[in-house]
Design a protein that fits this description.
about 70% helix; mainly alpha; about 80 residues
Length: about 80
């Protein structure tokens, strides 16, 4: 059986960290956008003590998709 591609592993890591940070920031009554930024820092390859994404190309792909969703959700608020 083949292994799961790195792109899917990176997505799973990003979603799990974003979910945990979302719960923490909701409990602290802080803006969720700030929590998503903190989650991005936590999964970045520059953080030495946390699990990070493997492929730098997938970081750019997921960052672009994340910006699209962020702008879409902000547009829905307006």
């Amino acid at each position: 059986m083949s292994e799961i591609p790195e792109l899917i592993n990176d997505l799973a890591l990003i979603l799990v960290v974003a979910g945990i940070v979302t719960l923490i920031f909701k409990r602290l009554k802080q803006p969720l956008v700030l929590g998503y930024i903190v989650a991005g820092f936590l999964v970045s390859p520059n953080m030495p003590y946390t699990a990070s994404v493997v492929d730098n190309a997938s970081v750019h792909l997921w960052a672009d998709i994340g910006v699209m969703f962020l702008l879409f959700s902000l547009g829905l608020d307006f």
